[in-house]
Write a structure and sequence with these properties.
This protein is α+β, with helices and mostly antiparallel strands and about 800 residues long. The protein has 22 helices and 10 strands. Keywords: Cell membrane, Membrane, Transmembrane, Transmembrane helix.
Length: about 800
Amino acid sequence: MHSVAEKSGVNMRLAAAITRVLILLLVALSPPVMAQPSPIDVATAQLTTAETALNGVDRALDTRTDRDSRAKLRDAALTAQSDAREAADQLRGQLALIDARIAGLGPSVAGVVEAADIRNERRSLAQARNSLDSKVKRGQLMTVEAGQLVAEIDQTDAAEIGERIAVRAASPLAPRFWSDLFAAFPRDARRISTFVGREWTQVEIGLRGGLPWGALLGTLLAVALLLPVRQLLRRMGQRYLIVDAPGHRVRRSANALWRVLVGTAMPTAAAFLFVQGLRWSALLAPSWSGLADAFVAAAGFSGFTASVGAAFLMASQPSWRVVSLSDAAATALRPVGWAFGALTFVVILLGAFNSAIGASPTALLAMEVVEVIVHLILIGGTLVIVGRLRAGEAADGESEKEAATSAGVGAVTLTLWLIVAGAGLSLLIGYVGLAITVAQFVVWATLLAVCTYLLMVVIDDVATSLFQRDSRIGQTLRHGMGVGASAIDQFGVLLSAVLRLAIIVIALGLLLYPFGAGFGSFLDRVAGLARGVEVGGVSISPGTILRFVAVLALGLFLVRQFTGWLDQRYLPSTGLDGSVRNSIRLVARYLAIALAVVWALASLGIGMERIALLLSALSVGIGFGLQAITSNFVSGLILLAERPIKIGDLIRVGTDEGDVKRISVRSTEIELADHSTLIVPNSELITKSVLNKTLAGPLGRIQLQFSVPIATDADRVRALVLETFANEPSILDAPAPVALVDGIADGRILFNCFGHVASPRSTGEARSNVLLDLLRRMRAEGVELGTVPQRLELVPLPSPAHAPS
């Protein structure tokens, strides 16, 4: 027992010793492991890193760089700018904390000796604040410097693109063009022969090792992906959508998106496997590596172009089509997408081939001429097809909506014809760079527009189908979280609008991306060479005027789209009545127009302070010259805000009575009983008396006034009146009809009777029915009815004796 106890004590002491050693080790190791740097140290290190990156970009720009290098430098400058701004914001937050601590200490009072710890605290806080303030200013300065570097890179890109477009080469019709081409042909032919010979030598070396199983496997996999696998994935996607997708709209849009994904992924994967198989079998020369990578990229982009066109048209499956397009139009336009896809493939591959062999400038110019010609032929052929389709639809007859759509298509077609003609003329006079840029821009803009439309359709279908009151998500939100049905519908519409707006913004940002940031600036320089004049600090030139018109037109177009969406999509989902919708629609419309005008003025360089100054200067003139219009405008805003009169109310203005049909900020339209329209200025409705018969409630009242001889049984007459009210279906039981004895005069009993109907518009017919029935009943009872008696007094004339002299 003693040995066991000793052994147990030894074990306990050993365990305690091991525990102490472990605790000491943890304490020794914990500072470097658990210590976290302060936010100030992190922000300072971030500033240092950003400064180093900006210095590297600045040094790199001192040397000659190509476009790809400048793109990388631009990204580095933007990253450094973002890091510097973020670090400055973090340091600014720490600076605010120090300012709060300094404010907590309060200002030092002259003649009062503070404690030593307070003085030390104040001194350390002042030093920390000065250090943080300098670092914040340093970050702000780095942000500005990064912006200047980005602007310098953008200007260099713009100048390079401008030089490329503005350079005039020999015209394809000039003999010099062909003589230079024939002179450069032998050297280019030798370059092509050398380039092909390297690959042939590599193929011979690769085949010596036996059968190229890798290349065969890659080729077989590529063919399988392009043909059976692609078709199988399409059918699987449609089968899944038919079974599980919620609603036809989601199926239709999701199928279009799936076709684009499959049509892009399969050619890309097939080209990658084919090239990889050649590399596995050592059949690809090192000098052909760049061309092989370009082959993969060309296959992917051309597949994307063709699949987007096929998903947009759906020529073989009209029931899955997302756009309102006839079968004849879809069939006629079907080859266009494949043609542009093939052209894209050839252009990318030829560009990589010319770069790989180091083709001469003359050969590159000839390739660009051929590319422009093919582009213009395809664009012109597409426009011819569209023109024939429009002519056929016009011959068959079209509705008003189709006519409006056809007019818009006609305007776009005419614009494209003018662009094609301009590009062709530029090519003939030697501006090949301008011609090829314009042709590529038309193709890119068309592809981007089709992709944007498809994405907007997909987003709208998915958002409005998933977030509606009867969907699975909608029912879950309604029953599980108590969300209102109208709120779910509104959220779906708003989500769709926000996402589609984001897609439009992204598309606008991508519109000029392949052509360099300076393309728009170059067009501005070409459009107006004049410097313009300075008016009140604002530069006015033809370019700024065109920009003002373009911005104003765009703003008004966005206003129209917004008000249309608000009126047709959002407001119907709110469940509000027509009057409230009209008020919201009008106020939103005028506010949107005001914002569009301010935006257009801002494009001229007129800031908000100048606009406010202009409005204040014109306020006196507006007050005197437009007093009536201003009064009606303010009155209209009061009507829309207070809503004493709403659309659908039955009102009486003077002697005219009718239904309110429309309220604008200037006037109100009232439909009278004879179906004519009375237009009343809003100031009349605000400053004068108006009888609104449906403001407090929808009920109407009829009144009957008559008299009977005093010998008539008044109780029996009252009972007959109430029975007559009860027999008329339009008379309401609540409030109950009443028949009152209003008085006795000139030997007759006066009755005043009231009954209520559901609407003031029904009082005329109801009153007529009650009077007819009451007359029949009174005649059957032998009661003599009369109106309220009128008393006539005869005043005798004065006698001649008392006549005035």
